[in-house]
Every structure is written in structure tokens, then in C-alpha cells.
Specification:
By secondary structure, the protein is α+β, with helices and mostly antiparallel strands. The protein is about 35% helix and about 30% strand. The chain folds into three domains: about 190 residues, no CATH class; about 110 residues, GMP Synthetase, Chain A, domain 3; about 110 residues, TolA/TonB C-terminal domain (2-Layer Sandwich), CATH 3.30.2420. Strands 3, 4, 5, 6, 7, 8 and 9 form a seven-stranded mixed sheet that branches.
């Protein structure tokens, strides 16, 4: 019997604060060690250094990330003194657009946004930790504008990303104008800023339903009923039923999913993890599809085309598939049962992703070019893992050995069906 294949969920492993393709990283600081990566050091050619020196002599001092380094140094000292209840890992300064190092040297005003990553942030202390870090950032900045002889730096937004300690890890985003963060530091009102975001999240579900309904109309998708948008233990759950036909079902399903991506996945208050369940009524039957929220977010941002979204992330639930009962019994033969539901196997990987994450983090630290890959492996009827391979990316032998060992320890259910081939994409968010 040929093994069946199912494409898995998209997982984003956060290695550092996120920078989109339309942004430029200026300075990244590891707050634990103080090590830095800056745009100034990306070109170490002697000719460039000599040119910078000549320009400085002729025109006066131009932009340097050393000025941002003073802010990061002040923040590190404040964190070491105040000791917030959660660890801030990385601090990032970035330009909100694409710009070269040479162009920065010629600019009279440089816009800079700030992104701070807290990981892990335990649920019991996370609200207070985010509030304290916002106040410390405000104190380190002092002003949303730094004036120098030839140029000035103007700070635009301050974002704090708090990565939860649950599985799967939830990333909460808090973003404010730099002026508000500085005012909160002076008034010691960081908690009020955090509660502002919490209040906005409280109305997220209703707002998301309204935006989704409008997007579906704009995509000319006929809804059979109002969409259900709710938070659950795995993040966000979106349930949607639409009318369609057997000929154009693919374009109809994609249109509905892209509407979810535009209206729900891009909402700043949407959970990072979640799943969309879609039912298509074609007049004679119901066809059920599912897609991970992370994939729709990438599609809505233009990072994933419709063809790849359909082939790699949209899964259709086939008739006759049955959910298997998980068992820890290691002895005896597999029970006589129907084919295992592939979604049950994928849920095992998602629920135990923390066992795979150390392997991927270590690879990302060894190789700065590592952007992620797709894990392809087989789960046998006895719950074992075989034939691990990498697709859409490359990994070292150390990564393969580490992942093979980790996957082999996951509690896959034992069943009497055919071997399942799974694909599980993982992206490194640097």
C-alpha cells in the first residue's frame, strides 16, 4: 500500500525580532551578552572605510549606529538594575523602508523604529514585564528625537514582542508611538499602555467578524452563514461556510482563505497561531478544508503565492478518515483500525514542537543564512518515524541527527493503517 501524504502546518520559529522585506536592519543587540550586528559593519572594505573618513572630514560627522548604541547601552544598564520579571533577549533598531548604508550617510533625518523581544514571558508575570520594559525603553530614549550637527534621528514606533511559555508559543505584540512610551516612562504609566492593547484585543473577535464579512463581499464569496472567530487553547479558530461549485472550488476556497488573511491574520491583535476550517457547499456535498493561520498571514503580506498556498498548506479532509485514540502502550501489535487521521499526527508535532525547537535554534546560530525548511518524514503504523528528509531548504548533518532523535521521541499514535508521509514547514524569523 502506498503511503498517504499530508502537508503540515507552517511554524515560525522566532530567532530574533522580525524585520520585513520592506525594512532595513540598522542595529541588533543581544541584551544578554551585549554583542551587536550593525549596518555600519556589513561592509568592512578598506575603500569604504577610507571614503567614510574623507566624507566625515569634508562634511562633518554623518549617521552612525554608535548613536543608537548609546540608547541600547542605557537600556541594558536599566534592565540590569531594575531586573524585570521576564528576560528581554534582543533589541532591534530598524529603518521603516529599504535604504543603503551610503544613503544613510547622506540623509539629514533618519526615521528609526524599535523592536524588543521578550522570551520567554510567563503568563503570570508577562503583563507587568511588558509594562516595565516599555517604561525602561522610554527612560533610555529620553526624547523621540536625537539632534546632531548634520542630522537627527527621529524615533517612530516602539514594539515589544512577548513570546509565551506555552506550547505552541503565542507571540503577543505591543506597538506604540515612541512619544507615548517616553510619556509613560515619565508618568510611570506603562501598565496603562499595556491595558490599552488588552482592551483592543477584547473586542478583536467581533471586529474580525465584521472585517471578514466585508472582505468576503469584496472577493465575491457567498457565505452560507456568519463566520465564527474565536480564541482557543491553540490560538485563533476561524470557521467559515461558503457556497461554491465542483468546477471552480479551488479558486473559491482560495478567495475565502485570502479574505481571512487580509481581514483577520493581519490584524495586529490576532494571535500568531491558529487554524482556519472552511466548509464548501457545492449543492450535493460538503467539502471540508483547513489551513494554518501563519500561512494566510504570509500570503496576505505577499510572501506566499496562491499556488504555493494551495499545494503546501491547504488540506482537504477526506471521507472515511477517523480520529485515532492516542496510546502509550509500547507492547503488542498495532490495533486493527481504519486509516489514522493525518491531522492527528500533525497535532502531535505542533503540541510537542518545543522538543524540535532547540535543534532549529542551534542550526540558526551556526548558520546565519539558515531561513528554515520543510521537514518530510514518515510515521509508521507502530508510531515510529522514518526517512527524515529536508525540502525547500538545506540543513546540516547535525540538524538531521538532532531532529531525527527528537521526532522519534514524539508520542505518535499506533494504528493499523498505512504509513503516513508528512510535510511540516518551519520558517526562521530573524
Amino acid at each position: 500500500m502506498r503511503p498517504s501524504t499530508l502537508l503540515g502546518f507552517c511554524v515560525v520559529l522566532t530567532v530574533s525580532a522580525a524585520v520585513r522585506a520592506d525594512q532595513t536592519r540598522l542595529l541588533e543587540v543581544d541584551l544578554a551578552t551585549g554583542s551587536q550586528r550593525s549596518i555600519d559593519k556589513q561592509s568592512a572594505k578598506r575603500a569604504d572605510a577610507a571614503l567614510d573618513s574623507l566624507l566625515a572630514e569634508a562634511m562633518g560627522r554623518s549617521f552612525s549606529t554608535a548613536d543608537l548604541g548609546k540608547v541600547s547601552g542605557a537600556l541594558r544598564r536599566l534592565i540590569q538594575t531594575m531586573r524585570p520579571p521576564a528576560n528581554a533577549r534582543l533589541l532591534l533598531f530598524f529603518y521603516p523602508g529599504r535604504v543603503t548604508r551610503v544613503a544613510l550617510k547622506e540623509m539629514r533625518e533618519i526615521a528609526v523604529d524599535i523592536d524588543l523581544l521578550i522570551e520567554p514571558c510567563r503568563r503570570t508575570v508577562c503583563t507587568g514585564a511588558v509594562a516595565m520594559h516599555l517604561e525602561l525603553i522610554g527612560r533610555a530614549l529620553g526624547s523621540n528625537k536625537l539632534q546632531f550637527e548634520r542630522y537627527r534621528i527621529r524615533f517612530g514606533t516602539v514594539s515589544v514582542r512577548a513570546v509565551g511559555d506555552q506550547t505552541p508559543a503565542e507571540i503577543a505584540l505591543y506597538r506604540y508611538p515612541a512619544a507615548d512610551v517616553i510619556a509613560a516612562a515619565k508618568q510611570r504609566s506603562g501598565l496603562a499602555l499595556v491595558r490599552r492593547v488588552a482592551n483592543a484585543r477584547a473586542g478583536f473577535e467581533k471586529r474580525a467578524q465584521q472585517k471578514l464579512a466585508a472582505q468576503l463581499r469584496s472577493w465575491r464569496v457567498r457565505s452560507a452563514s456568519a463566520a465564527e472567530v474565536a480564541r482557543d487553547g491553540a490560538g485563533l479558530s476561524v470557521k467559515l461556510t461558503i457556497y461554491g461549485d465542483r468546477v471552480r472550488f479551488r479558486s473559491q476556497v482560495l478567495a475565502a482563505l485570502l479574505a481571512v488573511g487580509k481581514s483577520v491574520a493581519l490584524d495586529p491583535h490576532a494571535p500568531t497561531a491558529g487554524k482556519i476550517e472552511l466548509v464548501l457547499l457545492d449543492g450535493r456535498s460538503k467539502r471540508r478544508f483547513s489551513c494554518p493561520l501563519a500561512a494566510l498571514r504570509r500570503a496576505a503580506q505577499g510572501q506566499l503565492d496562491a499556488t504555493s498556498l494551495w499545494s503546501d498548506y491547504v488540506a482537504e479532509q477526506r471521507r472515511g478518515a477517523k480520529q485515532m485514540v492516542f496510546t502509550s502502550d509500547a507492547d503488542g501489535d498495532p490495533p486493527d483500525a481504519a486509516q489514522v487521521d493525518p491531522s492527528a499526527l500533525l497535532q502531535v508535532v505542533s503540541s510537542n514542537f518545543n522538543q524540535l525547537a532547540p535543534c532549529l535554534r542551534a542550526e540558526a546560530q551556526r548558520r546565519s543564512s539558515f531561513k528554515g525548511l520543510t521537514l518530510k518524514f514518515e510515521v509508521t503504523g507502530r508510531g515510529g518515524v522514518e526517512r527524515l528528509a529536508f525540502e525547500k531548504g538545506s540543513g546540516s548533518l547535525r540538524l538531521r541527527v538532532c531532529l531525527q532523535r527528537a521526532l522519534g521521541q514524539l508520542p505518535f499514535p499506533r494504528h493499523g493503517g498505512a504509513t503516513q508521509t508528512l510535510r511540516y514547514p518551519v520558517y526562521i524569523d530573524r
